[in-house]
Every structure is written in structure tokens, then in C-alpha cells.
TrEMBL record:
Belongs to the 2-oxoacid dehydrogenase family. Residues 96-109 have a biased composition (Basic and acidic residues). Pathway: Amino-acid degradation; L-lysine degradation via saccharopine pathway; glutaryl-CoA from L-lysine: step 6/6. GO terms for biological process: tricarboxylic acid cycle. PROSITE patterns: BIOTINYL_LIPOYL, LIPOYL. This is Dihydrolipoamide acetyltransferase component of pyruvate dehydrogenase complex.
Length: 199
């Protein structure tokens, strides 16, 4: 971590217990007030267990996981996934055709229901089941605190001055054609403002 960063929050694990990792491979991520840092494996091996859990506050040098050099990756975990993928590969072509035929009537029956429910006057809101609260990362918390502090301490002053522009507008309409002929540009208001302020 950086010199001014003393601790961080363990955001998430990129590997699972039982996974094989190589040296310098990222196994987790730590969020600090300034950056998100990858935690690299110091050596090649198999992750036995995680000592810390997600959301814990850790300091530099804290042990996060136990990696065994001698342990072999669990073949029982890898082999079934390969066998199931090989077994599933031949059957799908014949099985897919009936599924597609069966799905087409379902799609047709769903469309009328959706058209009945949807009305142009009512806004479509996401269902409550899909909403979830997620904790704000430390970096975003720090940014929010800094923005609020600057809003509270910044001296903001807006001044309005009312000016009667009747004579100036009359002067502009009287001399605008002559000004364009003489100088090639239209007579604006900024030159008058500069003259008034400079006096």
C-alpha cells in the first residue's frame, strides 16, 4: 500500500479454497481510501483456506489466506465438471429441437399478457426483488466526504447588480450602422461595461 495508507477493506476474493494459484497471481482485492489493490500470492500452490473474510479491515502484512505448496488440487472437484461437460455435449442436439418447438408457443402466450399489463400512462418500475443494497467502497466514501467538506467550507458568494440600460440601448440603436461601416463589427455591450468598470 502507499505510504499514507495504513489500512484497507478486503473487498472480494478472486479465488476459492481448493483453487491452484501461481506465484504473483491475484487472489483478492483490497480497497483503500485512494486505490484498489490486488493481493498477490507469494508462492505457487493450492489455497487451503481464507483467514480473513470479505469486509474485514486489514493492515499491510496481515495474512489473508493459507497456501499449501505440497497439496495437489482436488481432482474430485475438477473431474466431475469435465465428465458432466462431456456427457452433456452429445445429448443437446436432439434434445434442443423439441425444446425450441415447445418454447415458441410459450413466447406467444407471454406477449399478450405483457401488452395487457403495460400501459403508456404508468411508469415501469423494477420489481423489489431485484433491488439490493450494496455497501459503498472506501474510495467513494472518501470522495463523498471530501465533496461535502468542500461544500461546507467553500465561501460561495453571488452578487446581483441592477442597471438601467435604457440609455445604452438607445445609444446602440442610434450608432450601430455607423459603427459597422467604420469598424466592420457590430457594436456590442461589453465595451460599455468595460468602460464603466474601468472608470
Amino acid at each position: 500500500m502507499g505510504e499514507s495508507v495504513t489500512d484497507g477493506t478486503l473487498a472480494n476474493f478472486l479465488k476459492k479454497p481448493g483453487d491452484r494459484v501461481e506465484a504473483d497471481e491475484a487472489i483478492a482485492q483490497i480497497e483503500t481510501d485512494k486505490v484498489t489493490i490486488d493481493v498477490s500470492s507469494p508462492e505457487a500452490g493450492v489455497i487451503e483456506k481464507f483467514i480473513a473474510s470479505e469486509g474485514d479491515t486489514v493492515t499491510p502484512g496481515t495474512k489473508v489466506a493459507v497456501i499449501s505448496k505440497s497439496a495437489a488440487p482436488s481432482e474430485a472437484h475438477v473431474a466431475p465438471s469435465e465428465e458432466t461437460s462431456q456427457k452433456e455435449t452429445p445429448p443437446p442436439p436432439p434434445a434442443e429441437k423439441p425444446k425450441v418447438e415447445a418454447k415458441s408457443p410459450k413466447v406467444e402466450s407471454v406477449k399478450p399478457q405483457a401488452s395487457k399489463l403495460a400501459s403508456p400512462s404508468e411508469p415501469q418500475l423494477p420489481p423489489k426483488e431485484r433491488e439490493r443494497r450494496v455497501s459503498m467502497p472506501r474510495l467513494r466514501k472518501r470522495i463523498a466526504n471530501r465533496l461535502k467538506d468542500s461544500q461546507n467550507t467553500f465561501a460561495l458568494l453571488t452578487t446581483f447588480n441592477e442597471v438601467d440600460m435604457t440609455n445604452l440601448m438607445k445609444l446602440r440603436t442610434d450608432y450601430k450602422d455607423e459603427f459597422v461601416k467604420k469598424h466592420g463589427v457590430k457594436l456590442g455591450l461589453m465595451s460599455c461595461f468595460v468602460k464603466v468598470v474601468a472608470i
